[in-house]
Specification:
The protein has 364 residues and is an alpha/beta fold. It has a 10-stranded mixed beta sheet with strand order 3-1-2-5-4-8-9-10-11-12, sandwiched between helices. A two-stranded antiparallel ribbon has the order 6-7.
Length: 364
């Protein structure tokens, strides 16, 4: 049974899940011209310390998702049978804490064939420090989406095939995901102004951060490069090759943290590293490049927590799995607290704790 690290912040945690349909966008990853873009989105938020409710489960649709996710990770299916015995800190459908609100808002974008739950430990850590976090399932680019009516949308390999009209290139993909991020922020703005709603007045949408892993890291850069609502961003071992050339050339206007492994594990290593270095050099100040020696691509997610065998299975580095996840969570939390909660130089102080981490800043 996986064990998530204890959260370090003072806030209790609530969560709710929503089915959203963007009627303004056609779904380009299906053959039906009438399909509109549908996503599942989960919100995690500070809750009252005495809130009473049902504990959230790691995968609400485990019987459906478990075998598909295991195949995606090349794991025997039984390794995920007990994932819902994991003790989460979040309670389902409890009220958002009224006191001390509004809270800064963060949006999370998963990796290719990932899922909105893949960084649950990091999300809970952020919420415990006073952030509202929305996690998105990017339909057809994630491992699968299960809709409330029972429909299942599986990963569509054409998202990177170059086929279709318009061509389903990687740049198109991160553009679609960036539009998902923008649409979620639009919906949150409606709920924040909606009298009588559970999120009314609880969200500080003048303080928005975006973070993502791998392809979601590329989508984060794409969104932050074209939407001024992004006030700070984090790329977790980000795949930045798909980012639009204009954004790479212009640089990112907001503070950004590139948190990455010392070695990009895929064939386009040279190109990805060169683009990441340019983005860092041109990013708004203060921005940081944090390189973790010994980390692998999935160490920036919850995957190391799924089994003590992940190093042998090639799904994590050789470091202690809990230590690795706590390191990533600590750095992301420190950066967003520094940039969106005026917490001081939390990132530099945090990096000093971890000898595996080399942190370089571009100056304040």
């Amino acid at each position: 049974v996986p064990t998530l690290p204890e959260v370090t912040g003072p806030y209790a945690i609530g969560t709710q899940t929503f089915h959203l349909v963007d009627a303004s966008r056609e779904e380009i990853y299906t053959d039906d011209p009438d399909d509109k873009r549908e996503i599942m989105m989960q919100i995690w938020y500070p809750a009252a310390p005495d809130a009473a409710g049902e504990a959230s489960r790691y995968l609400e649709d485990l019987p459906i998702m478990g075998p598909v996710l295991a195949e995606r990770l090349n794991l025997p299916p039984f390794l995920l049978d007990h994932v819902n015995l994991t003790n989460l800190h979040a309670l389902k459908d409890v009220d958002v804490l009224a006191a001390e609100s509004p809270f800064p808002v963060l949006i999370f974008s998963h990796g290719l064939q990932g899922m909105r739950q893949q960084n649950t430990a990091m999300v809970e850590e952020l919420v415990s420090h006073g952030f509202v976090v929305a996690t998105i399932d990017h339909t057809y680019g994630n491992v699968m989406t299960v809709f409330p009516d029972g429909r299942v949308a599986l990963y569509n390999p054409d998202v990177l095939s170059g086929a279709g009209d318009p061509p389903h290139t990687s740049n198109t993909l991160v553009g679609v995901w960036a539009d998902d991020i923008g649409y979620v922020l639009d919906q949150l703005a409606v709920w924040n102004e909606e009298g009588g709603g559970g999120f009314n007045g609880r969200l500080d949408l003048s303080k928005v951060g975006v973070f993502g892993h791998s392809t979601g890291g590329g989508a984060t850069v794409e969104f932050c490069g074209r939407d001024e609502r992004c006030q700070a961003g984090v790329g977790l071992d980000a795949w930045v090759v798909p980012v639009s050339d204009g954004i790479v050339m212009a640089g990112l206007p907001q503070p950004f943290l590139f948190l990455r492994a010392a070695k990009w594990e895929f064939e386009d290593r040279r190109e990805n590293d060169a683009i990441a270095d340019k983005l860092f050099a041109e990013a708004g100040k203060p921005s940081y490049m944090a390189t973790v020696s010994g980390a692998t691509h999935y160490d920036f997610t919850d995957i190391p927590l799924l089994s003590p065998l992940t190093p042998q299975l090639g799904l994590s580095g050789a470091m202690d799995n809990t230590y690795t996840v706590e390191m990533m969570n600590s750095m992301v939390s420190a950066f967003f607290r520094q940039e969106l909660q005026d917490a001081g130089d939390e990132l530099v102080l945090g990096a000093m704790v971890y000898p595996e981490m080399e942190l370089v800043g571009n100056g304040r």
